Automatic annotation (TrEMBL):
GO terms for cellular component: plasma membrane. Keywords: Cell membrane, G-protein coupled receptor, Membrane, Receptor, Transducer, Transmembrane, Transmembrane helix. It is found in: Cell membrane. This is Neuropeptide S receptor-like. It comes from Crassostrea virginica. It comes from the Eukaryota. GO terms for molecular function: G protein-coupled receptor activity; peptide binding. GO terms for biological process: cellular response to hormone stimulus.
Length: 452
């Protein structure tokens, strides 16, 4: 018999709690790794992997791309990708840990702080989407009126993150770690027991749903509706003017003139409409099911369980972070940028391979140089000859060996008693290797040794 007390079955945003009575003497054993648990862990991990890959790739592409025309939108998209990465590292990771262990194992501090950061990441994504919609509205719908009064792009981004951290502060007081007796064993759970009355949970969730889902949806719908309307009107105006100009030229039998602006506006119109539909539909489809199910459970005092529906809604809720880089990558990037980025990465790999090969070759030549130095030292002990090598010789030039040796013999040696043992000529790959020849008279040395 499943006998939890008041405990959490979700780590996403607001923990969904339900109450049943349970006997502390229950000794029923429950298998942790059931098929349901495995499927849920695998689903969250798959969403997490796609979220990490998609958002890291999106940041890399937007950072590499140096187009000033899309700089304002790119700042929003990069911050949105950072927020989605935070969702993967914080929300999804803690969800996996909770599902796997079937209890809270991260301690009392993370019980408060991790849930707080979960709410921050959710709010930041919502506020950044809303801020980007307002910015596009100001640029396209009211370009002249709002040019002087429009705040800087960084101001909007900072405000989005600030309000995300501010509105999530109640989470620090709501969640606490407590020990619960489950199946006769003590289990640590992270509970939302910070409420002193049931109505407080309903009020707070209503407030959360309002500023995360309802208000941003209304603002985005309004902004994109106005944007689509203005772009459509401008496209129709240019098309009408182009048609009038064509009729006039046909009447006067003058050569036709191609209107590039009309085609650009038409393409822009289609792009804005597609972006409007994808952004709004993606946002509403991913977030609405979770909030509706949680709303029904809380306002029914958890008489409606809806456990399976809640699990599916949580997965869809997290899919939004993996879906964002796809949606915004389609509209913020072009295929040429992706191919250019791929070419650059490929060129860097080939250059790095060439550098590695060159370093390996230089290392082998350095081993040869060490061998030559050992021979040089051994010959120096016999007092045959000596050389001072300026810099470290890297390559051995056999073609210059005889020329250098013959030049030294003609310039320095005057008697046939002096002998030079050929030690080889080394030469630096950048600077010319400098050799100093110190001549030694073997006969004089032998006389000195005899006298000694």
């Amino acid at each position: 018999m499943k006998c939890p007390g008041i405990w959490n079955d979700s780590l996403v945003l607001v923990r969904s709690n339900f109450t049943t009575e349970c006997s502390d003497n229950s000794t029923e054993t429950v298998e942790k790794w059931t098929a349901e648990v495995i499927i849920r862990v695998a689903s969250v991990m798959a969403v997490m992997v796609f979220t990490l890959i998609g958002n890291f790739l999106l940041i890399a592409l937007l950072t590499y791309k140096k187009s000033r025309r899309r700089k304002r939108v790119n700042i929003f998209i990069i911050n949105l990708a950072i927020g989605d990465l935070a969702v993967a590292f914080i929300t999804m990771s803690t969800e996996i840990v909770f599902i796997a262990f079937n209890e809270w194992v991260l301690g009392p501090f993370l019980c408060k702080f991790a849930v707080y950061l979960q709410c921050v990441t959710l709010s930041s994504a919502t506020f950044l989407l809303t801020g980007m919609s307002v910015d596009r509205y100001q640029v396209i719908v009211r370009p002249m009126q709002s040019l002087a009064r429009r705040p800087k792009i960084l101001t909007k981004v900072v405000c989005a993150w600030f309000f995300a951290f501010l509105f999530a502060l109640p989470q620090l007081a709501i969640f606490v770690e407590e020990i619960h007796i489950k199946n006769g064993k003590p289990v640590k759970m992270c509970w939302s027991h910070g409420y002193t009355a049931p109505w407080q949970r309903k009020v707070y969730f209503s407030f959360l749903m309002t500023y995360v889902l309802i208000v941003p949806s209304i603002v985005m719908l309004y902004c994109y509706y106005k944007i689509a309307k203005v772009v459509w009107a401008r496209a129709s105006t240019h098309q009408h003017l182009h048609q009038s100009d064509t009729d006039e030229r046909t009447r006067l039998k003058s050569p036709p003139r191609v209107s590039i602006r009309t085609s650009l506006v038409s393409a822009s119109k289609q792009k804005v409409i597609k972006m409007t539909l994808t952004v709004i539909v993606g946002f509403l489809v991913c977030l609405t099911p979770y909030f509706i199910i949680s709303f029904l459970r809380i306002y029914s005092d958890y008489k409606l369980k809806l456990d399976y529906a809640l699990s599916i809604a949580e997965i869809i809720f997290m899919v939004h972070s993996a879906l964002n880089p796809v949606l915004y990558g389609i509209f913020a990037l072009r295929w040429e940028h992706i191919k250019r980025f791929h070419r650059r990465v490929k060129d860097r790999k080939s250059i790095q391979n060439e550098i590695d090969k060159q370093r390996a070759a230089d290392k082998r030549r350095f081993y040869k140089l060490q061998f030559g130095i050992r021979i040089f030292k051994r010959r120096n002990l016999y007092r045959d000859t000596s050389f001072i090598i300026a810099n470290h010789a890297v390559t051995k030039e056999k073609d210059l060996q005889k020329q250098e040796a013959s030049h030294l013999i003609q310039h320095d040696l005057s008697t046939h008693d002096e002998q030079i043992v050929d030690n080889g000529c080394y030469r630096n790959s950048i600077d010319t290797c400098v050799f100093f020849h110190a001549q030694t008279n073997i006969s004089n040395i032998s006389d000195q040794e005899t006298s000694l």
